[in-house]
């Protein structure tokens, strides 16, 4: 029986990059049972909420979920009582138990000159950000009055241990645990638990602890020194957008969000709905294609099909394909065509 994939195109450039991704998936020889659901702002417009119970249930019952992006000016609000598209994304991550977000950062030699950073700095970079995705300040209690607001940041030992395990399992050389243990209490627990976990389960892998401000600096001055970076939810959010600069564009970075084995994963680009370019046919679809490749590998066990998409993306870029975000003039259609012709 064909695997069941839930498609969540979402908002902004979302529908523009999901459609060509289905062409790429089909060209690589896969055939899935797709089911599309409105999500984010598109779901608010029809259902009044960013994630309906029905969509969450469909995702739980599927083999994998492929999501483009949510959000946009139409739904922007600072009123805590009004629905926001991003609540759908957070609800989905929490509802599927997706605590481990993998964001690989592998700048392609062909794109070294598309980055604002110097080629000598980027050369040899191949790192993985392992972002904790269902805890921290994103999910703590929130309060709001006219004049005060608060967001609780909480972590438990269990939450820290399970993300540390993912990081050490993925490491080839070293794990860099990023925190703010000089100031924040959750970071002090984070550091203690990672240190203990390392000593008891992975003593042969190198472990270093780096404060987040220093890590942000090192990421653009000495990125090749990193192997696996493991960090809490919000630090991981910020550092991964920063790391995207190493690849030439945020439009290049894919991600996989995973929970315990046997549960469906969620696969989505790191970038957002890019409202500034939505509807103009110029979105870079590569992060979305590479997220589909991560779905094949991590979600469905289709390693050779995943590698085929990745190498077709590499070859298209090596042949000179450049979308606008990479300093060129190719649109989404041309980029898709270039990848398809390399499959
Ligand atoms: P963004 O990532 O959408 O855009 C930042 C900049 O990068 C923009 O100039 C945009 O045009 C460009 N960009 C992003 N993806 C691109 C692509 N594939 N090709 C070419 N250029 C691309 O971030 P933002 O503007 O801060 O956020 C816009 C909306 O997206 C917000 O509502 C935000 O909450 C949401 N968002 C959603 C997700 C998600 O769904 N996973 C992730 C991040 C942001
Ligand atoms: C991301 C996004 C989301 C996050 C937003 C849209 C909730 O920025 O996936 O990186 O902060 O996790
Ligand atoms: Mn982000």
Q: What CATH first level of the largest domain would be assigned?
A: Alpha Beta
Radius of gyration, whole Å: 20 Å
Number of strands: 12
- What's the arrangement of strands in the largest beta sheet? 2-1-3-12-11-4-5-10-8-9
Structural class by secondary-structure content: alpha/beta
Summed over residues and divided by their number, the pLDDT gives a mean of 98
Helical coverage, percent range: 40-55%
By CATH, the superfamily of the largest domain comes out as Isopropylmalate Dehydrogenase
Uncertain stretches: none
Structure description:
The model has no long low-confidence stretch (mean pLDDT about 100). The protein has helices at about 15-25, 40-45, 55-60, 85-95, 120, 155-170, 185-200, 210-220, 235-245, 285-300, 305-320, 330-340; strands spanning about 5-10, 35, 65-70, 100-105, 125-130, 140-145, 150, 175-180, 205-210, 230, 255-260, 265. The protein has a 10-stranded mixed sheet, sandwiched between helices. The chain has a two-stranded antiparallel ribbon with strand order 6-7. The chain is globular and about 50 Å long. About 40% of the residues lie in helices and about 15% in strands. It has 12 helices and 12 strands. It folds into 2 domains: about 1-100 and about 250-343, Isopropylmalate Dehydrogenase, CATH 3.40.718; about 115-245, Isopropylmalate Dehydrogenase (3-Layer(aba) Sandwich), CATH 3.40.718.10. By secondary structure, the chain is of the alpha/beta class. Strand 11 (about 255-260) and strand 12 (about 265) form a beta hairpin. Helix 1 (about 15-25) runs parallel beside helix 12 (about 330-340), helix 8 runs parallel beside helix 9 (about 235-245) and helix 10 runs antiparallel to helix 11 (about 305-320). About 50% of the residues are buried. Bound molecules: nicotinamide-adenine-dinucleotide, 3-isopropylmalic acid and manganese (II) ion.
């Amino acid at each position: 029986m064909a695997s069941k994939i839930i498609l969540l195109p979402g908002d902004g450039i979302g529908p523009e990059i999901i459609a060509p991704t289905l062409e790429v998936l089909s060209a690589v020889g896969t055939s899935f049972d797709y089911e599309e659901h409105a999500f984010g702002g598109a779901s608010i417009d029809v259902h009044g909420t960013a994630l309906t119970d029905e969509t969450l249930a469909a995702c739980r019952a599927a083999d994998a979920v492929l999501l483009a992006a949510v959000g946009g000016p139409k739904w922007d609000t600072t009123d805590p009582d009004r629905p926001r598209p991003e609540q759908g994304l957070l609800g989905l991550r929490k509802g599927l138990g997706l605590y481990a977000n993998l964001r690989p950062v592998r700048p392609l030699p062909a794109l070294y000159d598309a980055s604002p950073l110097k080629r000598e700095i980027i050369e040899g970079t191949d790192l993985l950000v392992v972002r904790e995705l269902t805890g921290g300040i994103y999910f703590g209690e929130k309060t709001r009055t006219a004049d005060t607001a608060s967001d609780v940041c909480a972590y438990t030992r269990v939450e820290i241990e399970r993300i540390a395990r993912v990081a050490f399992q993925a490491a080839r050389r070293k794990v860099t645990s990023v925190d703010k243990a000089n100031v924040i209490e959750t970071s002090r627990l984070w550091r203690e638990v990672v240190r203990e976990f390392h000593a008891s389960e992975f003593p042969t892998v190198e472990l270093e602890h780096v404060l987040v401000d220093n890590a942000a600096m090192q990421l653009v001055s000495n990125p090749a020194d990193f192997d696996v970076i493991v960090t809490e939810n919000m630090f991981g959010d910020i550092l991964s957008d920063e790391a995207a600069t190493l690849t030439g564009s945020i439009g290049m970075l894919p991600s996989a969000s995973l929970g315990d084995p046997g549960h469906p994963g969620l696969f989505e680009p790191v970038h957002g709905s890019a409202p500034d370019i939505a509807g103009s046919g110029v979105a870079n679809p590569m992060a979305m294609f590479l997220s589909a490749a991560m779905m094949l590998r991590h979600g469905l066990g289709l390693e050779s099909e995943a590698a085929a998409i990745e190498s077709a993306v590499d070859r298209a870029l090596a042949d000179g394909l450049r979308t606008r975000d990479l300093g060129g003039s190719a649109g989404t259609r041309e980029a898709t065509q270039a990848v398809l012709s390399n499959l």
